[in-house]
Amino acid sequence: MIERIINLFLTSSPKEIIVMILGAMPISELRGAIPFGIASGLPLKKVLFFAIIGNMIPAIPLLFLFEPVSNYLRKFPAFVKFFDWLNRRTMKKASVIEKYEALGLAIFVGIPLPMTGMWTGCFAASLFKIRFRYALLAVITGVLMAALIVTPITLFGKGFIHNVFMGR
User: Fold this and answer.
1) Rounded to whole angstroms, what are the CA distances from 25 to 71, 83, 102, 118, 164?
2) pLDDT per residue over 93-119, tens digit each?
3) Range of the domain at 144
4) In which element (H, E) is residue 130 found?
5) What is the biggest distance separating any 2 CA atoms in the chain, rounded to whole angstroms?
6) Which helix (H) or strand (E) is 112 found in, with range?
7) Number of structural domains in the chain
8) Positive or negative, the Cα torsion across 125, 130, 107, 54?
9) pLDDT tens-digit profile of 124-138?
10) Separation between Cα atoms, residue 102 and residue 66, nearest integer Å
11) Which of 64, 66, 53, 38 is nearest to 140 (CA)?
12) By C-alpha distance, which of 13, 6, 60, 55 is closest to 34?
């Protein structure tokens, strides 16, 4: 049933909207949105525009709401475990943020590895009490850096796969 819904969504929705949604989701972010958009045949400018916009849409609410929402949800045992896990995972990768603050946050968001990105970066900004304007600027910078890293890797990978499997 879920597979049918997903297939219906993927076949009936404009590819730009799918790219934007993938960019906004915490797991895929730009790492999923850009390859999907390029593989879908969208022009690169559209892919980058919708992926970056999609990735940035949740940033402002997350920067404002992570701390109060997580504090409220910690009243419930299941969420205590989740936020403790997220805190440990973020702290393992966040030494650069601890050392360089907003600049470190930009680097943390910009390096497209698991458990880095805009969502975890917003959580880390809350965790390290980075002021909103610096955190937002760092997140924007990091998202742009990630796009600059993911795009050529995707284009290279697409060309490589095409050459290997299509014999060109």
Assistant:
1) 22, 18, 23, 10, 32
2) 788 898 899 999 999 999 998 889 999
3) 2-166
4) none
5) 59
6) none
7) 1
8) positive
9) 999 999 999 999 999
10) 17
11) 53
12) 55
Judged by DSSP in three states, 167 sits in: coil
Task: Give dist(CA 11, CA 30) in Å, integer.
Answer: 21
Q: Provide CB contacts within 8 A for 33, sequence distance 6+.
A: 19, 20, 22, 23, 47, 50, 51, 54, 55
Of the candidates 100, 107, 99, 98, the one whose C-alpha atom is nearest the C-alpha of residue 127 is: 98
Q: Is the CB of residue 110 less than 8 Å from the CB of residue 149?
A: yes
User: Cβ distance 149 to 109 under 8 Å?
Assistant: no
- At 17, list the tokens: 């909207």
Note the pTM of the prediction, 2 decimals: 0.87
16 CB-near residues (< 8 Å, 6+ apart): 37, 42, 46, 50
- Torsion (CA) 63, 119, 146, 132 in degrees, nearest 10: 10
